Predict the 3D structure of the following.
Amino acid sequence: MHLPVPKLPAPGPTAVALCAVALLGLAASPAHAGDGTTVRFVIKDLDSTKGRVLCGLYANEDKWLSPDYYMGVEGKPRSDGKAVCVFHDVPPGVYAISAFHDEDDDQEFDRGLFGIPKEDYCASNDAYRRFGPPSWEDAIFRVGDKPVRMSAPVH
């Protein structure tokens, strides 16, 4: 099973890794700064407050779940079993989100025998497959000029 293993910067409460050129296929320019909206993704049903939740926003099916082509953010697990990842300045388009609860805080999606996940994960639209990673088609959503809010439970 191939799931995202985001490469985020050193741990920090607001660490953000932006990869606009690879993610969006746009040339970086001041014209794009602040032109997007906010996407808020709530991860539910976490069973501990250890570590952090790493989230990736993907704008391209060919790059879906690849650790090198995403806008990444993190959320801190809360005592209510939730974590929130917020993506800022997201231009209009079609996207998908994947996330996993990095309980041991090693920035890696841990797997066991036969690639079975050891850490909980989820995707936008609660896209889930019992065997294999969530599909792009099941996870995609549209971003326009209004903020987007969504949530999904971990599996």
